[in-house]
């Protein structure tokens, strides 16, 4: 079943046009990497889905239903959770309180606070401490855990490896694969070669606001992958 589909999408910020005919699909349980150099429009794909960028042409469908962009405030209830670039842990709140913010009580599923603690035990240890007092890697685990609290059908991650040590990136990749194996589809926006390889199954390459290549990562050489994401 197709979860998310963009069909010939054009979108803009004000008068600045960014996406030019983007088409892509994500099926249930898939692991899809959206790759490309900085500034080519990858984050705008996400922003177009949640109404932060203005859709000027084309259609966005979720679970087979064409619709207006899902607004950020109700995306979780619709089955989409986003781990934004920079993690955006809420200052002044504990780990536990940050997790509660991600809850969508009307969405059934396996993910609750104890399930998140089981996946990331450090969050249980730090549950009553401030989320912003943790290391970058721990904050990324918290951001993912917060997103899982809504039991999403689709988890979108925007540059999750940013600022993380290689060993933490490896652990992150392993946890994302486990999530997909449990049925959560993943759209990974990323430039770290290792994480792309570890998590992605299919890929889309963006350049200048449009998709210029797609396929299976297994068929893409390391040299080709690097050429798509290196400045």
TrEMBL record:
CDD domains: ABC_TM1139_LivF_branched
Location relative to the cell: Cell inner membrane
Family matches, as SUPFAM superfamilies: P-loop containing nucleoside triphosphate hydrolases
Ranges where the ABC transporter domain occurs: 4-231
One of the Pfam families matching this protein, by short name: ABC_tran
Recorded GO MF terms: ATP binding
Gene3D superfamilies for this protein: P-loop containing nucleotide triphosphate hydrolases
This protein's UniProt keywords: Amino-acid transport, ATP-binding, Nucleotide-binding, Transport
Main location: membrane
Superkingdom of this protein's organism: Bacteria
Family the entry assigns: Belongs to the ABC transporter superfamily.
Protein name: ABC transporter ATP-binding protein
């Amino acid at each position: 079943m197709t979860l998310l589909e963009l069909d010939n999408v054009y979108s803009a910020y004000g008068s600045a046009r960014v996406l030019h005919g983007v088409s892509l699909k994500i099926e249930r349980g898939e692991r899809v990497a959206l790759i490309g150099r900085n500034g080519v429009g990858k984050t705008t794909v996400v922003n177009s889905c949640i109404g932060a960028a203005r859709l000027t042409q084309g259609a966005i469908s979720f679970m087979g239903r064409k619709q207006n962009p899902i607004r950020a405030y109700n995306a979780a209830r619709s089955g989409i959770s986003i781990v934004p670039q920079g993690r955006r842990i809420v200052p002044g709140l504990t780990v536990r309180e940050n997790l509660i913010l991600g809850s969508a009580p009307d969405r059934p599923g396996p993910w609750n606070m104890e399930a998140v603690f089981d996946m990331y035990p450090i969050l249980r240890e730090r549950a009553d401490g401030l989320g912003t007092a943790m290391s970058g890697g721990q904050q990324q685990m918290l951001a993912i855990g917060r997103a899982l609290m809504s039991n999403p059908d689709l988890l979108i991650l925007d540059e999750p490896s940013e600022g993380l040590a290689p060993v933490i990136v490896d652990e992150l990749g392993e946890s994302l694969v486990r999530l997909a194996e449990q049925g959560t589809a993943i759209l990974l926006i990323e430039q770290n070669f290792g994480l792309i390889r570890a998590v992605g199954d299919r890929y889309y390459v963006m350049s200048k606001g449009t998709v210029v290549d797609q396929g299976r990562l297994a068929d893409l050489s390391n040299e080709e992958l690097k050429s798509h994401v290196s400045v």
